[in-house]
Amino acid sequence: MDKNFLIDKLHNDKNLNDEELRFLIEDDSSDDYLFEIADKIRKEHYGTDVYLRGLIEFTNYCRNNCYYCGIRRDNKNVDRYRLTKEEIMLCCEEGRALGYRTFVLQGGEDMSYKDEDMCDIIRTIRAKYPDCAITLSIGERSYDSYKAYFDAGANRYLLRHETANEEHYARLHPAELSLKNRKECLYNLKKIGYQIGTGFMVGSPYQTTDNIIEDIRFMQDLMPDMIGIGPYLRHADTPFADMENGSYKLTLRLIAMLRLFFPYALIPATTALGTINPTGREQGLKAGANVIMPNLSPVSVRKLYTLYDNKICLGDESAACRNCLEVRVKSAGYQIADSRGDVKR
Ligand code: 5AD
Ligand code: FES
User: Fold this and answer.
1) How far is it, in rounded angstroms, from Cα 233 to Cα 243?
2) Residues in the ligand 2 pocket, defined by CB under 6 Å
3) For 63, phi and psi rounded to 5 degrees?
4) Which residue from 93, 102, 219, 227 could staple onto 53, CB 3.0 to 4.6 Å apart?
5) How far is the CA of 315 from the centre of ligand 2 (A)?
6) Atom of ligand 2 at shortest distance to CA of 321?
């Protein structure tokens, strides 16, 4: 098969069969051409803008026990913390001063934040920052809960599907979690009116090329506004401590392919990508990504929100990250946008 021909085909009509997709995923020749086309498409839709999302990791309590994740409930080596509404508001204040117009409230599945608590936090942020987007990333909850948060003022929701294959899902998660429910959550969020983000880890344990093809097929059905992927990275205190990290190169190739499949999408150059390679996020931008999610959490709790080992930016104040990113984004040939960065369909 001719690789460049397939890249052009993906660019032109997106109509690739599984065999063609497999070849594109597995073959590493022509990555430069792939990145070039992906960058061209990104520029057609979003120019050279890069959107920042201020990430507030407000709780590391989690009721779940995903085998890959450092804050899984069975990890007794984690000091658990929760931020109060006042502490969250301080993060937003700092973020707004640094120019962020999206706040992402991310946490483990911590049911001590009841619906009314979440709604109170959302309403308070909404009232103080009417021009900002509020993104939630707090896992699986009911339709009614999602609806209540939306009505309180949340606009976007991030929930990675993790893998679209049942058997693979069952190898990454205990039996109490189901892919069916996760997918249902995503369709519910979409129906309610959120801009939704999904995604998966590249090179998660037992992942096959077929699984990745299924991930793409699932997303072609869901048509998410945002797609987050990053390499799987091991965490020493999980059942997967001895598993290999995901591939940096494959992550970049998949970012570029996702840009071609979903030209309109918001695609982050993730912290995991910046962790596996010191200039990973810059390379991610050049391969088609257009979002970065800097950490706005108080420095005192940052090292406690460790999904994987060696996470970057743990000691850096938010302002330091902001300056660091300015330089990095520029060096890659883009600039930080000051708009909210909503999806352009
Ligand atoms: N390596 C990389 N990414 C991880 N995530 C969780 N654990 C890890 C890990 N060990 C990702 C999951 C989750 C997101 C918040 O972080 O995909 O959805
Ligand atoms: Fe946080 Fe560079 S982005 S220090």
Assistant:
1) 9
2) 294, 313, 316, 320-321, 324-325
3) -80, -10
4) 102
5) 9
6) 1
Domains in the chain (CATH in brackets) are 27-336 (3.20.20.70)
CA of 125 to the centre of ligand 1 (A): 26
Q: How far is the CA of 9 from the centre of ligand 1 (A)?
A: 32
**What is the per-residue DSSP string for 127-174?**
HH-TTSEEEEE-----HHHHHHHHHHT--EEE---B-S-HHHHHHHS-
Q: Which atom of ligand 2 is nearest the CA belonging to 324? A: 2
pLDDT tens digit at each of 345 positions of the chain: 799 999 999 999 999 999 999 999 999 999 999 999 999 999 999 999 999 999 999 999 999 999 999 999 999 999 999 999 999 999 999 999 999 999 999 999 999 999 999 999 999 999 999 999 999 999 999 999 999 999 999 999 999 999 999 999 999 999 999 999 999 999 999 999 999 999 999 999 999 999 999 999 999 999 999 999 999 999 999 999 999 999 999 999 999 999 999 999 999 999 999 999 999 999 999 999 999 999 999 999 999 999 999 999 999 999 999 999 999 999 999 999 999 999 998
Question: 69 C-alpha vs ligand 1 centroid, how far in Å?
Answer: 6
Q: Rounded to 5 degrees, what are φ and ψ at 204?
A: -65, 155
Q: Which atom of ligand 2 is nearest to the CA of 292?
A: 3
pTM listed for this prediction: 0.98
Ligand 2 centroid to Cα of residue 264, in Å, is: 27
Q: Which ligand is nearest to the CA of 54?
A: 2
Task: Work out the end-to-end distance of the chain between its first and last CA atoms, rounded to an integer number of angstroms.
Answer: 32
